[in-house]
Amino acid sequence: MADVHREPIALPPGRGGRFHVPGSPYVVKLAGEQTGGSLAVVESTFAPGEGAPPHLHRGHDETFYVVSGAFRLRCDDRTVEAGPGGFLHVPRTHPHSFTAIGDAPATILVALTPAGFEHFFIEAAALAASGRPDRRAMESLLAGYDQELVDWGRSDDRPGPTKNRSW
Q1: In this structure, CATH architecture of domain 16-149
Q2: Would you kindly state where each structural domain of the chain is located, as residue ranges?
Q3: In 20-38, which positions are buried (b, 16+ CB within 10 angstroms) versus exposed (e)?
Q4: Closest CA relative to residue 20, chosen from 112, 122, 120
Q5: What percent of the chain has pLDDT over 70?
Q6: How far is residue 50's CA from residue 93's CA, in Å, rounded to a whole number?
Q7: 60 vs 37: CA distance, rounded Å
Q8: pLDDT tens-place string over residues 83-111
Q9: Closest Cα to residue 65, out of 41, 95, 38?
Q10: DSSP string, 103-128
């Protein structure tokens, strides 16, 4: 019997597990169940001004690759603007955020190591199925995945909360 964690996986564009989290669609391209828990890959497209608020993860690293459009990526005190091919690796416990910039939607591919956090997007989509989830429900979900929001405040060189920061 073949090891299901060692089977090749090929997906055409737009395919994978699709979930809509308030503000953006997410596509799970590769889930932890397919890699023995070592890696998950998620793709998401954001409208200009949308992204992820400042936060950190305690249980996994994230690696970002810009597929199309442009993003402002921040990790710790470093902010970069990146177009297609732009790359950022964020080790666990480092505060980070990202925001789509420009006039067109932007797509980013995120590798999660180890896997598991892809289930956060699935659960967030379920919470949002009947409308925008309340703050308590989102905070509980965030805590369940060892993620916490970070308050950087505002200044000209720091991206602040994004449009979809309703939690």
Answers
A1: Sandwich (2.60)
A2: 16-149
A3: ebbbbebbbbbbbebbeee
A4: 122
A5: 87
A6: 23
A7: 11
A8: 999 999 999 999 999 999 999 999 999 99
A9: 41
A10: SS-EEEEEEEESS-THHHHHHHHHHH
